Amino acid sequence: GHALRIGGAIYFIPFMFVYRPSLLLMGSPLQIAYDFAITALAIWAMTGAMMGYLLGTLNAVERAVLLVAALILYYPAAWADASGVGLLVVIAILQTRKGKMAALGAE
């Protein structure tokens, strides 16, 4: 159950090697670092969508948006990277606010 959900995102990594060859250390140090960061965010978003938890429990809409963000991040284009990171940031902000609201309600 959970192992497949967590590990499911790693099955996309070989495709990232095709679309982002700098992950194989082919390219400038800046490009390698950039593609590594985008790939890490894509895996984090995919795992969060599969598990239903990012910085807190995700509802169905947040999971769907996170899955879309992960899939967009796998596409090798600047607009896709910006869109995917933007969606991921929106979900992270919502999760942070939801956590703060819950903490205030618990006091």
Describe the overall structure:
With 107 residues, the protein is mainly alpha-helical. The protein has helices at residues 2-7, 13-19, 29-51, 60-74, 78-106. α3 packs antiparallel against α4, α3 crosses α5 and α4 runs antiparallel to α5 (78-106). The chain starts with a helix and ends with a helix. The relative contact order is 0.13.
SSE topology sketch:
Blueprint: H1 2-7, H2 13-19, H3 29-51, H4 60-74, H5 78-106
Helix pairs in contact: 3-4, 3-5, 4-5
Roughly what is the average pLDDT, rounded to an integer? 82
Number of helices: 5
Unreliable parts: none
What's the helical proportion of residues? over 70%
Computed over alpha carbons, the radius of gyration is: 15 Å
What string, H for helix and E for strand, traces the elements in order?
A: HHHHH
Beta-strand segment tally: 0
What class would the helix/strand composition place it in? mainly alpha
Provide keyphrases for this structure.
globular, 107 residues, mainly alpha
Q: What is this entry, summarized?
A:
The chain is mainly α. It has helices at residues 2-7, 13-19, 29-51, 60-74, 78-106.
